Amino acid sequence: MSNLSLRERDAATIAQIGKLRFSPLSVVGGQGNRLIEEGGRSLLDLSGSAGPAILGYGHPAIVEAVEASIRDMAGASLLLYPNEPAVSLAERLLAITPGNGERRVWFGHSGSDANDCAVRVLQAATGRSRFISFIGSYHGNLSGSMGISGHTAMTHTLPRPGVLLLPYPDPYRPQFSAEEVLALLDYQFETTCPPHQVAAVFIEPLMSDGGLIVPPPGFLNALEERCRRHGIRIVVDEVKVGLARTGLMHCFQHEGLTPDLVVFGKGIGGGLPLSAVIGPKEIMDHAPAFALQTTAGNPVATSAGNAVLKTIEREELVERSARVGALFSDTLKTLAAKHEIIGDVRGRGLAVGVDLVKDRKTREPVTATTTAKIIYSGYELGAAFTYVGLKANVLEFMPPLTLTEDEVAEGVAIVDQAIADVSAGKVSDTDVASFMMW
Ligand SMILES: Cc1ncc(COP(=O)(O)O)c(/C=N/[C@@H]2CCCCNC2=O)c1O
Fold it and tell me: Which residues, other chains included, contact 320 with Cβ-Cβ below 8 Å and sequence gap of 6+?
């Protein structure tokens, strides 16, 4: 047994290109909504491992489903053979997801591969090669999904040729109003982006990594109206905010949207690698052997997916997210009376963001260093959470949907103390230097 710490061994073995570390936390276990640090300390997880742990850790429903499916494993490849858990999960997803016409389900391993698949099959099936997406959007880290993303963390890779990136209207920082964005789109349609060349719009119904932004009411409907006028498909990326997180089963339902394709990831697997795309049969049946991944839709991951959907229903997690999420946001808002740095608390259900500012009047974002220090202090005080935003100034809370009211109180008290500690200069620039990653 090595006498090095897990963190030291990680530094000596795991590639930096796959890391996005916000604190020194090294995890050796997890139960409920808590992570167990090397050395045994328990931390409250307000991040859900960046979203997938929507049932927390070690949930009996997932343990039971995964154990049963792996003990009598129906192969490991949906592309070679149908398996009961995958087909059952597809049936469940089709039943709970509003949409028009006959549809089909594709399974993958991640939000990235799901959006990658959607881009490729839409271009092939429609014969249209342009896409519309949004500045700040994060659809994935594979070539296709990155190519239609607009996040500042991806400027190392050029966008896909022909992608039109529009500003995402932000009610707290209305640099571009919804009306101005739509006018820009209309102008693009008249000039450099002929609508008949556009295969699809990719949109997050609540922009997460771009800063936890809830779009202005009516924006998505106005966008949908333009898409319908020009035969442009609508792809809703529910990877991070879907499946009960925002107080409805699907985040797009807050906007009355009827998407053509819906992309699921993160929480659908309850922590196991699983994603899905639901789309019209005429698109998703474009051609056999078009979007293959050997272990996608395997019986173990899809058994976890079935357990997730059944647990959402059995434990009434849609209602719970609305209720506990409102408590979380409201309690965070009380901190604004104590901390001038809190400019805005926003989100839907248990997708919550705290926008940190230098000045409430100008709404100038704090520096990434300040945000990172608050995350670091939160870690020292016993909670795990992350930051997002194009200026790295938004605390992101995507906790398990099983978060309790007591844990809300515990978590907000830690955020309160972390902000106070940073304001008092208790965290140094050196403390966070190695955690300034995006
Ligand atoms: C709306 C949305 N769509 C797709 C993805 C990509 O999902 P994967 O990271 O599972 O490939 C994501 C992933 N978002 C990043 C993953 C990198 C670490 C930072 N936090 C995230 O949630 C996403 O938020």
Answer: 244, 401, 402
Site to substitute for ligand 1 among 209, 251, 348, 388, most atoms within 8 A of C-beta: 209
Q: Could you give all domains of the chain from N- to C-terminal order, each with its CATH number?
A: 6-58+316-432 (3.90.1150.10), 62-314 (3.40.640.10)
DSSP 312-350: HHHTTHHHHHHHHHHHHHHHHHHGGGT-TTEEEEEEETT
Q: pLDDT means per 10 residues in the chain (438 residues)?
A: 90 95 97 97 98 98 98 96 98 96 98 98 98 98 95 85 97 96 98 98 98 97 97 98 98 95 98 98 97 97 98 98 98 97 98 98 97 98 97 98 98 98 96 88
Task: Pull the structure tokens for residue 198.
Answer: 């556009």
CA-wise closest residue to 137 among 203, 199, 182: 203
Instruction: Identify the DSSP state of 228.
Output: H
Residue-wise DSSP of 338-382:
T-TTEEEEEEETTEEEEEEEEETTTTEEPPHHHHHHHHHHHHHHT
Going from the Cα of 30 to the center of ligand 1, the distance in angstroms, rounded, reads 21
Q: Is 407 helix (H, G, I), strand (E, B) or coil?
A: helix
